[in-house]
Amino acid sequence: MRTHNSLINRLVQSDRGGAVLLVLLAISMVLVPLLNLAVPESSALHLSTYTMTLLGKYLTFALLALALDLVWGYCGILSLGHGAFFALGGYAMGMYLMRQIGERGVYGNAELPDFMVFLNWQELPWYWFGFDQFWFAMLMVVLVPGVLAFVFGWLAFRSRVTGVYLSIMTQALTFALMLAFFRNEMGFGGNNGLTDFKDILGFDLQSDTTRAGLFVASAVALALGYLASRFVVNSKFGRVIVALRDAESRARFIGYKVEMYKVWLFVFSAMLAGIAGALYVPQVGIINPGEFSPLNSIELVIWVAVGGRGTLYGAVLGALLVNYAKTYLTGAFPEIWLFALGALFVLVTILLPRGMIGLLRRKQTEASA
Amino acid sequence: MLFLFGYLITATLLWSAVGHAAPPVVSPVVSPEAPVQTSTETAVAPLDFAGALQALNADNFTAKEQAINALAALGDERTRVVLIAFQEGNLQYRKSDGKVVLVSEVAEGYQLTDPIEETDLGVVGKRDVKKITINNSLRRVLREAIARLSLTSERTDVRLTAVGELTGNLDAAAVALLERARTTEQDAEIIAAIDTALALSAVDSETPSVRLEAVAALQDSLLPAVRNRLSSVAESDANAEVKQAAARAVKSIETKLERYALAETVFFGLSLGSVLLLAAIGLAITFGVMGVINMAHGELIMIGAYTTYLVQQAMPQYLEYSMLVAVPAAFLAAGAFGIAIERGVIRFLYGRPLETLLATFGISLVLQQLVRTTISAQNVTVANPEWMSGSWQINAALSLTYNRLYIVIFTLLVFAALLLLLKKSALGLHVRAVAQNRSMARAMGIRTEWVDALTFGLGSGIAGVAGVALSQLTNVGPNMGQAYIIDSFMVVVFGGVGNLWGALVGAFSLGVVNKFLEPYSGAVLAKILVLVFIILFIQKRPRGLFPQKGRAAES
Question: Is the ipTM of this complex over 0.90?
Answer without folding.
Answer: no
